[in-house]
Automatic annotation (TrEMBL):
Gene3D superfamilies: Met-10+ protein-like domains, Vaccinia Virus protein VP39
Domain of life: Eukaryota
Any single biological process term in GO: mitochondrial tRNA methylation
Cross-referenced InterPro entries: MeTrfase_TRM5/TYW2, SAM-dependent_MTases_sf, TRM5-TYW2-like_MTfase, TRM5/TYW2-like_N, tRNA_Gua_MeTrfase_euk
GO molecular function: tRNA (guanine(37)-N1)-methyltransferase activity
Gene: Trmt5
Domain SAM-dependent methyltransferase TRM5/TYW2-type: residue ranges: 193-464
Known role: Involved in mitochondrial tRNA methylation. Specifically methylates the N1 position of guanosine-37 in various tRNAs. Methylation is not dependent on the nature of the nucleoside 5' of the target nucleoside. This is the first step in the biosynthesis of wybutosine (yW), a modified base adjacent to the anticodon of tRNAs and required for accurate decoding.
Catalyzed reaction equations: guanosine(37) in tRNA + S-adenosyl-L-methionine = N(1)-methylguanosine(37) in tRNA + S-adenosyl-L-homocysteine + H(+)
Keyword tRNA processing: yes
Keyword tRNA processing appears in the UniProt entry: yes
Similarity remark: Belongs to the class I-like SAM-binding methyltransferase superfamily. TRM5/TYW2 family.
Listed GO CC annotations: mitochondrial matrix
Protein name per UniProt: TRM5 methyltransferase
Length: 473
């Protein structure tokens, strides 16, 4: 390998070492040939049990830069789309225009695929001819494989590959390729984001901040429908569940529309809490409800639990302390025509539990008959603090306990950095309730929020001795 100018790193690769130890020498070169289009500096052609190498030229190196913009863009902070242009040498096959579509179907895995790139161009030497651009990584050394040659033979096309100078522009590169070329080498590239209607929401790291406006513009350019990009600049406020944000690119309109589980919502993303990653969890809880059930949503936000529950013909009491969330909750109730099925409140969560929740349970539970199947659910989705609110349920009601079936079921959310998150959440809930939940609760992992930080939901029926305070004799 050293004789042919290739790095000894190849000898250290496990998959090559393993293969070489069990394979004959010619077969090893066949294996190397498979990777010749993907390994820098290696060009191997195997034919009739013979092999030879070709030195790497400037044109050959252009093949390997097919997915990289011009190197001069490194360190750019103000987007200059023209700077991304570069010319690469690619293989093409000359064909008559009448059979272009047939050829494209037959060679669909070999034709070059890049964003915004024409796969077929005019042949400057033949007005009736076309040039079909092939992927140089799949046509090493501009030599067609047997399967490609067979396809051309069946279509009566001469199996000759020509070289073509292809100009790649900003439009032909993916967002991740652009950002990887711009940011310092070796540093993490951000191309993922949360989408909230027309808004892309980023959480940039410190080393990415100098490039934040460029990153924002690239995301707008590469994602149709995104017209505004924001970056979170502070942690979520535990009181109103919103956070400070900076508009990185695009319009400053943060009032948007979203659709979740076939229900439409409108909101001002700068003033209320909305997380598209919770869609599955919203649907999971609503799926537990039956028509006629009662839902108390203590931290309702703009209604992702309350509104679908109301559409399911449940009786809903929804509350949120944030006045903006409360207003958007009312707006979305009207938008989805459930405003007459939801009683909305703008209160502190404790006051909501001690007021409307206590009043409704005190009224309904004594009337509950054995044959009735109405269930009561309390959703507490404020992961940073909700477990602390569980203590409010202690002796919330006065009197003799109702039947076990009528005891409300609580779905309480929390964050945990513990090595055993489920145990941690359960123990904290038990501390707030003043009783053991061992064997009487279930925990559900909602999502990974950050490294070593999980969001969980603990569900349990409130024990009668916790919920009821028996009157003195």
């Amino acid at each position: 390998l050293w004789r042919f100018g290739y790095s000894a790193r190849l000898l250290k690769a496990n998959h090559f070492r393993t293969a070489a130890s069990n394979t004959s020498f010619p077969a090893v070169w066949m294996l190397l040939a498979r990777y010749s289009g993907r390994l820098p500096g290696l060009f191997v052609v195997v034919k009739r049990n013979r092999f030879f190498t070709m030195p790497e030229t400037g044109e050959d190196k252009a093949h390997l830069d097919l997915y990289s913009p011009h190197p001069e863009v490194r360190g750019m902070t103000l987007l200059n789309r023209e700077a991304f242009k570069r010319t690469v040498v690619v293989p093409v096959v000359k064909v008559k225009k009448e059979i272009v579509n047939t050829l494209l179907k037959s060679l669909k895995h070999t034709v070059l695929q890049r964003p915004g790139l024409k796969r077929v161009v005019d042949d400057p030497e033949d007005e009736d001819g076309r040039l079909v651009i092939l992927d140089p990584h799949k046509i090493p050394e501009f030599s067609l494989g047997e399967s490609e040659q067979e396809v051309l033979k069946q279509l009566n096309v001469h199996p000759e590959v020509s070289k073509y100078n292809l100009e790649l522009t900003y439009e032909n590169f993916k967002s991740e390729e652009i950002l990887r070329a711009v940011l310092p080498e070796g540093q993490e590239v951000t191309s993922g984001f949360s989408r909230v209607g027309h808004i892309a929401h980023l959480n940039l790291r410190d080393h990415q901040l100098p490039y934040r406006h460029l990153i924002g513009q690239v995301i707008i350019d590469k994602n149709p429908g995104i017209t505004c990009v924001v970056n979170k600049t502070s942690i979520i406020d535990s009181t109103y569940r919103n956070f400070q944000m900076e508009v990185l690119a695009g319009e400053s309109n943060l009032v948007t529309k979203v659709k979740e589980n076939n229900i439409a919502y409108e909101l001002d993303f700068s003033k209320v809490y909305w997380n598209p990653r919770l869609s599955t969890e919203h649907g999971r809880i609503v799926e537990l409800l039956k028509p006629g059930d009662v839902l108390f949503d203590v931290f309702a936000g703009i209604g992702p639990f309350a509104i679908p529950a109301a559409k399911k013909k449940c009786h809903v009491f929804a509350n949120d302390l944030n006045p903006e969330s409360y207003n958007w909750l009312l707006h979305n109730c009207k938008l989805n025509k459930v405003d007459n099925k939801i009683k909305a409140f703008n209160m502190d969560g404790r006051d909501f539990l001690l007021g409307p929740v206590r009043e409704e349970l005190s009224k309904e539970l004594p009337l509950l008959k054995e044959e009735q199947k109405t269930s009561f659910h309390i959703v507490m989705n404020l992961p940073a603090l909700a477990i602390e609110f569980l203590g409010v349920l202690r002796h919330l009601l006065v009197g003799e306990p109702c039947g076990a079936a009528g005891l409300p079921t609580v779905h309480c959310y929390g964050f945990s950095k513990h090595e055993d998150p489920a145990k941690d959440i359960r123990e904290r809930a038990e501390a707030s309730l003043g009783t053991s939940l061992d064997g009487r609760c279930s925990t559900y992992l909602v999502r990974n929020v950050a490294p070593n930080k999980e969001m969980l939901c603990i569900s349990f029926q409130v024990p009668a001795d916790v919920l009821y305070k028996r009157p003195c004799p």
